[in-house]
Amino acid sequence: MKTLIISGLSGAGKSKAASYLEDMGYYIVDNMPAAMILKFAEFAKGSRYEQVALVYDVRTALSFTELFGVLDQLEAMGCACKLLFLEASAETIIKRYKETRRRHPLAEKTDTLEEAVLRERELLSPVRARADVVIDTSRLSTAQLQQEMLRLFGADGGQEGMGVTVTSFGFKHGLPLDADLVFDVRCLPNPFYIEELRSKTGLDAPVRDYVFSFRESHGLLEQIQNFLTYALPLYAEEGKTGLVVAVGCTGGHHRSVAFVHALAEFCREKGYPTREIHRDISH
């Protein structure tokens, strides 16, 4: 089991980091006391929870000695455990609190927001010193933070952390609502008008052979592949964890299916985890 403990300053991005980890397949538990971390790890070990991220901050920090003891015990249990600490400049954190109008966890124990921020930094300094990874989010956009989480904690890191779904559809059944990119292949000859191909689909070799027997089909496929070659790394760099590429023809049985089958293989060869879906193939 892979265990990640997320700590750091309030307003530095712990919640956002946790949400990105959840998208990456981690099971998230927020504000867990140190005493419960070990019990949860014992429960989760050998269960369906292969990746766990536990958020630990000043609200639950009664004793850092207790937290450090738990970390040592987790290592002794053979858990792959890391401590991530998120921080930001006092000016950045104060600005974020002003924008959200939230109360700082130490607001009742201090006279000003600045004092609360500085006090929390001082309280959490032992945790920062123990951290395996420290990320300063002062100058990071949300997309950049997401990409950094993918790079550090994704299964493969970098662009391979972005999954691609390639789906075929029929325009007469409507556009896929979750599509990020849509390509139209209705400009190509339609196998529907070939009697022996009408009842088959683009997953059948005779239909694929017919679709790609035309120079225009190869040219269009090549143009889409060139676009994806250029665009997919940009989407991954922007921090997108999943991209839906939709290809449509009239009914979603023949041309779009053949193209999606080819594009899914192309994306896999590029190193992206890829799902192939044919939404309207049975309509």
Which key features would you list for this structure?
single chain; alpha/beta; Rossmann fold; 2 domains; four-stranded parallel beta sheet; 9 strands; 44% helix
Under CATH, the homologous superfamily of the largest domain reads P-loop containing nucleotide triphosphate hydrolases
- Detail the poorly predicted runs: none
- Number of domains as seen in the coordinates: 2
The sequence of SSEs as H and E is EHEHEHEHHHEHEEHHHEHE
Strand arrangement across the biggest beta sheet: 2-3-1-4-5
Count of DSSP-assigned helices: 11
Distance between the termini: 43 Å
Helix content: 40-55%
Largest sheet: 5 strands, parallel
Oligomer: single chain
Known CATH architecture of the largest domain: 3-Layer(aba) Sandwich
Q: Let me know the average pLDDT.
A: 88
**Global geometry:** elongated
What fraction of residues sit in β-strands? 15-25%
Which secondary-structure class do the elements indicate?
alpha/beta
The CATH class name of the largest domain reads: Alpha Beta
Rg over CA atoms, rounded to whole Å, is 25 Å
CATH topology of the largest domain: Rossmann fold
Number of strands: 9
